[in-house]
Write a structure and sequence with these properties.
Number of helices: 6
Largest sheet: 2 strands, antiparallel
Helix content: 40-55%
Order of helices and strands: HHHEEHHH
Structural class: mainly alpha
Strand content: 5-15%
Low-confidence stretches: 128-145
């Protein structure tokens, strides 16, 4: 038996997060080679291409033809992607009320106050959108993810 330690695996989602961060920092669409370069060349181009393809399949990035390959752009900013993931997880639940109750019960007091403010703003705003620039664009009630 070998005395060497096993290869350390990256935490789940770390590579996707790194690729998304590179796309968010870019001023336009990036090819896999551009993303590889933005990440310091520490990943193989095939790995970057695989990650980009998976992100495209998940609906996190869009792609357009660029020569013989594709150029990729993020569909949403970081906050939008988080909201989309939260909605996706909620949509998987049969008992949404319980899932929401457990989520809210685990919020910090600061997060709870932000949520209360957003909900109060949604009640008074036409179309259900919170007011103020910090709220950002909000989907209409009943709209898809």
């Amino acid at each position: 038996m070998s005395e060497t330690s096993p290869v350390q695996r990256r935490p789940s989602g770390e590579l996707e997060a790194s690729v998304l961060a590179a796309l968010w920092a870019a001023e336009g669409p990036l090819s896999p080679a551009d993303v590889q370069s933005a990440l310091g060349g520490r990943l193989a181009r095939t790995t970057v291409t695989t990650i980009l393809t998976r992100l495209h399949d998940k609906g996190a990035v869009s792609r357009s033809r660029a020569g013989r390959g594709f150029a990729y752009s993020p569909i949403q900013d970081s906050a939008g992607l988080t909201a989309r993931r939260m909605r996706s997880e909620l949509d998987k639940q049969d008992d949404r009320g319980t899932a929401l109750a457990r989520f809210v019960s685990q919020l910090t007091s600061e997060d709870e106050q932000v949520l209360r403010s957003l909900l109060e703003g949604a009640e008074g705003a036409e179309g259900g959108a919170p007011e103020g620039p910090e709220a950002g664009p909000q989907p209409r009630p009943g709209a898809g993810p």
